[in-house]
């Protein structure tokens, strides 16, 4: 319950977000609704892979793995522009695109970990690339200024020192991606309600 309250709190600040110039655009609304569904589909695929990691490696609870996480250096991709008090669609979209690119690359570690589920991982990578492309196209169509966020700290994946670290790394990549998608979904839903 506390976690739910903490995750919801930043969204309360968005209700006064100045986006009136976008809210009446029917093409923009269509884009939002299509990509809300697309994001929901991607979240479902990530959840399916999380179940595979849980069933295959018995890695199911994040709180049991926090000490190992610190050693791995796998950080959550930031999306603060999508829930700040000064919310701007173009800054949020830019951060979502940057995050999707980062997770697209990170999923390579999951692919190595779960070769028997290569089809699902590759579909997830393709979907992440397609969602990023959809957002880029919409930003260009709306004539919004694009913002490029630095990618420091999100370069190549860490070299896992053991099979167990690789498994835990895969677990956290998926857990972080799921949280990222939740925030992106909320941002798109917020824009659709304006």
TrEMBL record:
SUPFAM superfamilies per the UniProt record, alphabetical: 4-helical cytokines (SSF47266)
Biological process annotations from GO: immune response; positive regulation of myeloid cell differentiation
Position of the signal peptide: 1-16
Keywords in alphabetical order: Disulfide bond, Glycoprotein, Growth factor, Secreted, Signal
PROSITE patterns: INTERLEUKIN_6
Transmembrane intervals: none
GO cellular component: extracellular region
Localization, UniProt: Secreted
A molecular function (GO) term: growth factor activity
Family: Belongs to the IL-6 superfamily.
PANTHER family: GRANULOCYTE COLONY-STIMULATING FACTOR
Protein known as: MGF factor
């Amino acid at each position: 319950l506390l976690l739910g309250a903490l995750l919801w709190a930043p969204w309360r600040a968005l209700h006064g977000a100045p986006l009136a110039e976008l809210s009446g655009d029917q093409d923009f609304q269509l884009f939002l609704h299509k990509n809300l569904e697309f994001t929901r589909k991607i979240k479902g695929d990530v959840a399916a892979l999380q179940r595979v990691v849980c069933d295959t490696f018995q890695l199911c609870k994040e709180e049991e793995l926090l000490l190992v996480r610190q050693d791995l250096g796998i950080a959550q991709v930031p999306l603060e522009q999508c829930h700040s008090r000064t919310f701007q669609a173009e800054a949020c979209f830019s951060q979502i695109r940057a995050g999707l690119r980062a997770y697209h690359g990170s999923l390579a570690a999951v692919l190595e970990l779960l070769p028997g589920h290569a089809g699902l991982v590759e579909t997830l990578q393709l979907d992440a690339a397609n969602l990023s492309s959809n957002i880029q196209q919409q930003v260009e169509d709306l004539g919004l200024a694009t913002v490029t966020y630095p990618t420091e700290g999100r370069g190549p994946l860490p070299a896992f020192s053991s099979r167990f670290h690789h498994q835990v790394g895969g677990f956290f990549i998926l857990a972080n991606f799921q949280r990222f998608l939740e925030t992106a979904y909320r941002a798109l839903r917020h824009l659709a309600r304006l």
